[in-house]
Design a protein that fits this description.
alpha/beta, 5 helices, 6 strands, binds flavin mononucleotide, flavoprotein, Flavodoxin/NO_synth
């Protein structure tokens, strides 16, 4: 399993690591990949797209690398299993709702409730691990 994320100040990256722990605890291999280091073609080889982005811009996913990659998935992910997560600070989680809606409009199957956390995942480590475990339980 690859966990593909963007993180400006480390919060979403910490979530990715904890989610990875949950994936490993469920018996799957995991690789954390910063979004700049993967192509669309490599991403599409994955059984599940596990994707993380903080709220950036004005209630948007990260706009220079993550958003173009996501937009390029239109027409390519019908029926694809997807799990989304990320950190935010001051909004109501609107960026994640919009991200889910976009993925669904591309035909993706959101297999677990998206995980959003306010800033640092400190105190919510188990929630992150459970998210990782839930993904693996779904695909087993
Ligand atoms: C340029 C910029 C724009 C942001 N826009 C939002 C936003 O629209 N809504 C929100 O809740 N948080 C917003 N944030 C806060 C980040 O989502 C928050 O700090 C998050 O924890 C950063 O995660 P990271 O450490 O993985 O980069 C913004 C932060 C930056 C730097």
């Amino acid at each position: 399993m690859k966990i593909v994320y963007y993180s400006g100040t480390g919060n979403t990256e910490k979530m990715a690591k904890l989610i990875g722990e949950g994936v490993q605890l469920s018996g799957s291999d995991v690789e954390l990949v910063e979004v700049s280091n993967i192509t669309k073609e490599e991403l599409l080889k994955e059984e599940v797209l596990i994707l993380g982005s903080p709220a950036c811009g004005v209630e948007s996913i990260e706009e220079t690398v993550m958003e173009p990659l996501i937009d390029s998935l239109e027409g390519e992910i019908n029926g694809k299993k997807v799990a989304l997560f990320g950190s935010y600070s001051w909004g109501q989680g609107e960026w994640m709702e919009d991200w889910e809606d976009k993925m669904k409009s591309y035909g993706a199957d959101i297999i677990v409730n998206s995980l959003i956390l306010l800033e640092d995942p400190f105190g919510n480590e188990d929630e992150c691990r459970e998210f990782g475990k839930a993904i693996i339980e779904y695909v087993k």
